[in-house]
Amino acid sequence: MKRTYIIMGIIIVSVAIFLLIRSVHNSNLDSSSKTQSLLNVFQFMATPESQEEIPPVDPEKVEMYEIEQAHFIKEILLEKNPVCAGEDFKVTVIAKNPFGPDAHLVYRISNKLGNPAILRFSRAGVREFYVTVRDEGKHIDMRKVQINVVDCGEKPLVTLSARLHNLEAESAIFEITSQKGLQGKCTYDWDFGDGTYASTHTGYITHSYASRDQKGLQSSFIVQVKVTDANGISAVGRSSISFPNVHYLSNLMGNPVIPVLYNKFPSIDGAYITVEINMKNIFDEPIAFNTAVLECRPCNTTLSPDYKNINPDQILESTFIAPKSSVKQLLKVPKSLLPGSTCNLTITLSGPYPDKREVYAKIFLNIPPQSKEDIDTTRDKIITDDDMIEKLNKAAQILGKDRPITPQDIQKLEREGKL
Amino acid sequence: MKYIPKVCIALLVVFTCSAVFAGQWVYKPMSINAQKGDIILSTSPGFIMDLLAILGCYWSHSGMAVDNGFNIRHNTMYVSEVPIEYNYIWFIKTTPKRMDPNRLSNGLPGILTEDIDTTYNVTQNFHAAGGAVLKPTAANEALYRQYLQLAADKLLYVKAYYRVNAYVNMYQLDYVNYYITGRGNHCSGTCWYANYFAGKTMNVAYIPPSLVTQCAYNLYSSVKNMVRDEAGGFGAFIIDIEGLFGTGADEKIANQIVNTFGWDRSWDTSAYWRTYINQKSATANAPDHLLLYTYTNPAGHNPGVQTTSSSYYGQVDPLVITSGYYYWVD
Fold it and tell me: What is the ipTM of this complex?
């Protein structure tokens, strides 16, 4: 009798396992999914129940807005057609916005944001790409474009890549990814498309577009580099880069913020924290700041920040900025205003703006810790790697021991062969 | 005399300690101007950017600050790490067949938390240039912050895959902290769900079949060009496929991705989507659709996507990264 129960039990457990595996099998047509699905089952079995039940979304109760087809695109201009394989060409979109300002259209040409854009196809054939234009949110237009790409034989060719900077806001990284038909040591003459230029001996450069005008939702630039080799032979590479104009957008969303250019590491002496700032009023209305809030974040990030409201006259010489103009001046914050052990100082300037709004300028400053007591043991990392310590000591000799050293400083010195 | 050894030991200890603490290099990590619950928008390049291209978005990625500026939780997939399946003849590996359907459909790492140094400098899932922070207006900050902190807490709990198919059907994330095959979301859908789990149902975009059709052709063309020109976010394996397959690999990969996008048919490299795409509508948000527009533009139109009642996020600030830096302390 006991044996029968045991056998029955084994059969029931076996059937249950079989059904479990089979249900997983049926839920996945692909063989490689099975292992993962079984893992899911065991994860599920091993994971405690969630602390609360949240019902799934009922789509009927979600408010929807419809994205609608619009007819923004009037014409698409190709700089050349046919084009050589590997050669860059400019695409310009002519569009009109019946639902608002043309400046509120956002462009995407193939996989490039912005208008105009530089494209390049490396393989010959009839190639196609899409142009997408949308407004602030609800309307979109798309158009397919075809171009004939042909093989043109050997000729000097420079491929320039452009990408938005991963660490520096408002900056871009330009890099020559390949150059053909050029020999020896080359010189590189850069035109950043914003009226500024540079010359280098390497095919890599970064450039800040922080002082650009922000007249719409997007700012696009065509960047060009002329590479000249040791024999005087030259070739030109182009690329395009586009920035979302977040300050412009902040105004559309009702809380205008103006761009401010400054070094995040201020000068610090016994009495003041000083930094040169350049405030740019990109809007059509004059700005007069009448309030400044100092947010002092302690070096120990587990502690709460300290806030102080002050008159902006205490830290700025000029608090007025005319429309579409800039004011460059020194910002001087008396150290007496800050609590001890402050490692981050955020200054928010604000003033009245039409339609009962406020306009803002925000400045974020790093104040490096001065003593062991200011080390944030929860986040700061004490460097113990001997190679890194040696690099930092060398970098400090070059740059000065009293200033903080950023990873970008280290990279730059390494690239220059100084570390 | 008897105190001499003790004095010597004390001096030795003091000397040793002062030698150890003569000074040291310390790294202060980067942080951003976000508070817990704020949404971070970014223009990172790659495959996801191209998925979003079809909606004309300029922000391609979004995540949520889960503390005051040191960590971001977000949902992403590394398409270059999707394994390739190969054809076999008698156990001998021959030509590449397709991208691993399971990994394409259920993208990894899915939802993860990264500190600012890692996500901006190492994985580069987020980019500083063009970045923005979505937060409540100053007037609503005191009231709304508690709800956004709750949203961040909910997101900290949730774990899920990145789902390419969520661009067509966003309603596929569960409040669980383990992976479920066939469930998950994309980046902005995950941020939407964090708010939903905290009690706020934001507006969602409906995209009619005529536009989804154009999106599908756009996506197909974009992926095909990426494969053919060895560009974009795909890894070298795609180039291997092209080299071994010869012509046609670009079409197979593009088909597989569009089939995944529209129907979650990640195993299908056929042109299935071309037959059925005209019937497909989409319900999904992209990062740009998390924005709030409260104004009437000069042409008298209100382009509102989110409204003051549908979203806690009323203000956009340019992203600021406080540089990470090494400092010396004596």
Answer: 0.86
